[in-house]
Specification:
mainly alpha, Growth Hormone, Chain: A, globular, 7 helices, single chain
């Protein structure tokens, strides 16, 4: 049961991650269009966030238990507060950025960095900690890494397909973003509880 809940949360966060990228493109589109340049900035921002988040998460996972738990809560708080900023204030922020930075490249850089980088990086912190969760329960580290990132990638695929073909055509982007925030909050609370579950003696 514990493993089922763990993989369910990993899949859910994977769905949120790549679905958020598609929703991000819809947020940017009224201001910058949907050209290859826009997608290049957006994809690069998400990849940079994945990279930074994974490195920070690896560092957190090696901290002593009390500091590790504190780091996990801080990462979750940063993820949810920055995601809430994007959900609630993203459109207003984009209006201001478009006025302040008339050069498209600069405006895209500021928009992607301010709206997407922080929440995605904070969410990505939990990948290495999920690997450690399995490794601490007897799964060989290589296998644990493969399982976590393999299951997460399946979630990524599901997130792309679900968001592109079912959600965006039928719901407003603002509604979906609020849904993303709610599901992210529930998923992170569940994951934080799972990561504190005692290992078998």
């Amino acid at each position: 049961m514990l493993n089922f809940a763990f993989y369910l949360v990993v899949v859910t966060l994977g769905i949120l991650s790549m679905g958020f990228q598609l929703l991000g493109s819809r947020l940017l589109s009224p201001h910058f269009g949907s050209s290859i340049v826009v997608w290049a900035w957006l994809i690069s921002t998400f990849l940079a966030a994945f990279s930074v988040g994974s490195m920070v998460g690896g560092w957190i996972s090696n901290l002593p238990a009390e500091r590790r738990h504190r780091g996990q809560w801080i990462a979750a708080a940063i993820a949810l507060s920055s995601l809430a900023f994007t959900v609630i204030g993203g459109r207003a922020a984009l209006d201001q950025i478009e006025l302040t930075f008339p050069v498209t490249g600069t405006g895209l850089l500021v928009s992607c960095a301010s709206l997407f980088f922080v929440p995605v990086a904070a969410l990505s912190c939990f990948g290495p900690q999920c690997v450690q969760f399995l490794a601490a329960r007897g799964t060989p580290p290589g296998q644990a890494s493969g399982l976590v990132y393999g299951v997460s990638t399946l979630g990524n695929i599901a997130g792309v397909m679900l968001t592109a073909f079912a959600l965006i055509p039928n719901f407003r982007v603002s509604t979906l973003l609020y849904g993303w925030l709610i599901v992210a909050a529930a998923g992170l609370v569940a994951l934080l509880r799972l990561l504190r579950a005692p290992t078998a003696s």
